Structure formats: C-alpha cells, structure tokens
Amino acid sequence: MQGNGKRRLRTNLRGDTMVKPRIFKLGTLLVTQCVIFLTVSLVGAQQVPFFVIVHPDNDTEMMSRELISDIFLKKTTRWGADLSVELVDLKPESSIREAFSIEVHKRSTAEIVSYWSKQSAAGGQTPPLEVSGAEAVAFVRQTPGAIAYISTSSPFDGVKLVPLVIPPVVVKKVPPSYSDRALRFRIEGDVVLRLLVNEKGRVESVTVLEGLRYGLTEEAIRAVKKWRFEPATSGGIALSTEIDVTVTFGL
What is the three-class DSSP state of 168? Predict the structure, then answer.
C-alpha cells in the first residue's frame, strides 16, 4: 500500500470504444455522422477534408480506414455476393487525393502511384480510372456498387456520404486509486463512464453510466480526466466525440 493510504489498481479500456453513429438529415439525404460534433478544427495545415461517397442504393452507413484502403487498393472487390465494387480515384495532382492517401493508406500519393506501377508491371491489378471531383460524383451517381471520394466543398447531389471515422486512441492512461473505505470493505467491480474527448484529445466531460460505492466512482472519474487521447478524426478533421470506457477495480 502506498504512503497516502491508497492502492493503485489496473485500468482496462474495454467495451464499446468506437464512435457511435447518429443519423442527421442533410437536405434530402440521410447522412451518418458521429455523436457530438461539438467542435471541428483542422489537424495540421496540410490536411484537406474529404467525403467518401457511394451509390445511393448502397446500405453502408460507416466505414473504417482499413476497409476503405483495401477497396481503393482493390484488395476488397465486392460489397456482397451480388455486387462488385466499382471505383474511381482522383488525379495525382489533387490535394484531396494527397489528404486521402495520407489519411486512409498512411502513404503519400507518390507512394500509391508507385504501388500501382509495380502491380501493373507484375501482371497484377490495374489502378482505378483517375477523374476529377465532378466526374467522380457523376460516376458514383450512375453506377451501382460505385465508391469514390471528393472534397467536402464539392456538390454531392444524388450520392450518399459515408463518413470515415477513426475513433480516439488513448495515449496516456492514469490508473485510479482505491478509496480507503472501498479497500476496507474489499469492493470490486466496474465503473462505466462516457467521456467527451475534444478535438485536442482531452477529456472535456464525464458521464457516469454505471458506478460503484465508497468513492470508487469518484476515483475513476478523477483518473480518466487525466487521460490523453489522439482525437477522433474524419477526413483529416479532428472531432469532439463521445466514447464509453470501463474502469475495473479488483483486489
């Protein structure tokens, strides 16, 4: 036991830590966004926001970075048993393509162009057709199974937006302490908290979903307020988002 009479406990970040979807009506379209879009700011001056778009009949509501990368590298080629993926890419000189490449592939546009050159030379997959943003929208609107990405400032009539949401990642985790009373009565269990993580990766507010007696809920809150995160992002933009975390107390 430590000198202040409190004992350090392990902390688990578990359960549902993905950003929870919420449906917003945007014009005549239903657009899936993430819960609590309180503040939005650019992450670095070189990042340009974009939207992933699909044909309006596509029932996909949200996509991970890994899946989108696999689709645009033609590693995933079907939406299901009956529908092939049809895609176009933006031209290499596009700043939107550079933002997409960095955010989704974790590689530059030049590296992706090199990847396709090697694939073609080896007799593998050929690169997608390269088009303008307006041409990408027209292609997706007219083609079942189509997917593309465009600037957030581009018109997107007749297509469906599918957010690419990367949830926040904890980078600094402070363990909670046992209160003296909880230690005396050997209280164990979970405290489930909903954190509002702002666009700077700091915990802005905490809501208790499930608590414990004898001060353990307060100890859990005190600890998670010191946690730091890489903020959630969508299209190169940092977002304030809510996540649920579980803090486990055990002796």
Answer: coil
